[in-house]
Write a structure and sequence with these properties.
Rossmann fold, binds S-adenosylmethionine, 3-stranded antiparallel beta sheet, alpha/beta
């Protein structure tokens, strides 16, 4: 992969920058704004300010660290609510060049110089330990890292799940991957993702987590927030519940946690062909009329 071509910054609507990935043929963030997305799709649904107000330590698992926007927003929110809160940050990323390019190009900005210094060092050395943060960047396929974390009995207060979209990176949206991720969530923890795809939600359903929609930004679709506690989660609408009964909700599967994206997508198409779920077309037609 050509470094310069791979990591050309692109502006988003809130003034922050994203990268475009030629490998995944997708931008790292929505046009709406990389920083806005970090706050509304990840930090707020995970109730980090509220948790920081009550807890002296917060453990955060940031899956697909990328440029580091989600972690930066999380740290800023936690310390604004409680400057003494100790943060355990475990970040998973497959390509170290991404956070390093974000730092080198000055894209990761925050109001707090301490946080910037921490994240600069983090991208350089993949590990930072200070009086109030212990951060570790695991550079590997997240499917490998998550199995190691599960074996180490990691339990996170908040999990950010931010891979490229399901059609581009199905390996990080499968039932089996979600099961590993769910096992790393504390009983009162929260998992947040930007996706509201029914295939993603049905994979979450197979883990036993309860889930609902997070806040929609502008006229965009909402994300998803999940928890072990049903009383914690906003109920799904009738439209959303019925969507989960359709062919579109057939989840991605990867029993070995090693399959290629092509194989995972092919197997899902086969499962969809054999499925007796309602055609998604019929659902669309029904809900379009209302
Ligand atoms: C949508 S971007 C994440 C953006 C990021 N959360 C941020 O705040 O900038 C997806 C990231 O997932 C990484 N990635 C792709 N496949 C991966 C894999 N199998 N395991 C771990 N990370 C992966 C990409 O390198 C990319 O940085």
């Amino acid at each position: 992969m050509n470094m310069t071509h791979s990591f050309t910054p692109q502006p988003t609507d809130d003034g922050s920058f994203t990268f475009y990935s030629p490998e995944f043929e997708e931008a790292f963030h929505s046009d709406y704004g990389a920083k806005q997305e970090a706050i509304y799709k990840f930090v707020k649904p995970c109730l980090l300010a509220e948790k920081a107000g009550r807890q002296s330590t917060i453990t955060l698992l940031d899956i697909c660290y990328g440029l580091g926007y989600n972690s930066a927003a999380a740290i800023a929110t936690i310390w604004a609510a409680n400057p003494h809160c100790f943060i355990e940050l475990i970040a998973l990323e497959s390509d170290l060049r991404v956070p390093q390019a974000a730092i080198a190009q000055g894209l990761l900005t925050t109001k707090f110089p301490t946080i910037l210094t921490i994240l600069q060092q983090f991208a350089r050395t993949q590990q930072v330990k200070t009086q109030n943060i212990n951060a570790f960047l695991m550079i590997n396929d997240a499917r490998v890292s998550i199995q190691n974390l599960r074996q180490q009995h990691l339990k996170a207060d908040a999990i950010f799940l931010d891979p490229f979209s399901p059609p581009k990176c199905p390996q990080l949206w499968t039932v089996e991957f979600m099961q590993q991720v769910a096992a790393c969530l504390k009983p009162d923890g929260r998992l947040a993702t930007y996706s509201c795809a029914s295939a993603v939600r049905s994979a979450l359903a197979e883990t036993g987590l309860y889930f609902g929609s997070s806040i929609a930004m502008g006229r965009k679709t909402p994300g998803t927030v999940a928890s072990w506690r049903s009383d914690e989660i906003p109920p799904l609408s009738g439209r959303e519940r019925e969507h989960l009964q359709t062919v579109a909700a057939t989840p991605y599967r990867d029993r070995t946690l090693e399959a290629t994206a092509t194989t995972i997508k092919q197997q899902r198409r086969t499962e969809q062909k054999q499925s007796d779920r309602e055609p998604t077309r019929a659902w669309k037609k029904r809900w379009h009329k209302r």
